[in-house]
Amino acid sequence: MKRGNNLGKTVFTLIKWNSAVYKETLHLRNQVLRKSAGKPLLVDAPIEEKSDIHLVIKQDGKVVGTLLLHPCFSSCVQVKQVAISPSCQGQGLGKKLMVYAEDVAKRLGYTTIFLTGRQSAWHFYQKLGYSELMEEYTDGDLVFKVFKKDIQLIPTIKSKKEMKTNG
User: Fold this and answer.
1) How many domains does one find in the chain?
2) pTM, rounded to two decimals
3) How many CB atoms lie within 10 A of CB 130?
4) Which part of the chain is the N-acetyltransferase domain (predicted)?
5) Which domain holds residue 139?
6) Nearest-angstrom CA–CA distance, 62 and 46
7) For residue range 116-158, what is the model confidence (pLDDT) as tens digits?
8) 68 and 54 in contact (C-beta within 8 Å)?
């Protein structure tokens, strides 16, 4: 999925764990998520993310957004580590990244997505159709809630052999 905007070429794509582009996502996650949470900065690729599905947004060749899809079981996937560059926030890229992630999840056969969202993002996830699963909880200075969304599978197209016609 490639899209253009007034800032130049915007590309939504999947990347490989521990690739050069993946390492750019670690820097973005450190900047946007880890520092504000008081968590240690990521230096190396976390091994627990090796089997995750890694999505990015690039503008003019630079990573400006990222998220992970973490398979939980055959029908459920978790959205993790959503980060948009501060210089690109407010442009709708977070919404577009979530829609892209839902599309990828549907194509892979998942029917449910869940995520843990910071208080500052609750309204954002609710606007995207996510429902609260449990009461809020705290981790350090941050307040979180768990959200879920049921997504519909993309219907498969029958082959010509399977199609019945009236003519």
Assistant:
1) 1
2) 0.84
3) 23
4) 12-149
5) 2-150
6) 22
7) 999 999 999 999 999 999 899 999 889 999 999 999 765 655 5
8) yes
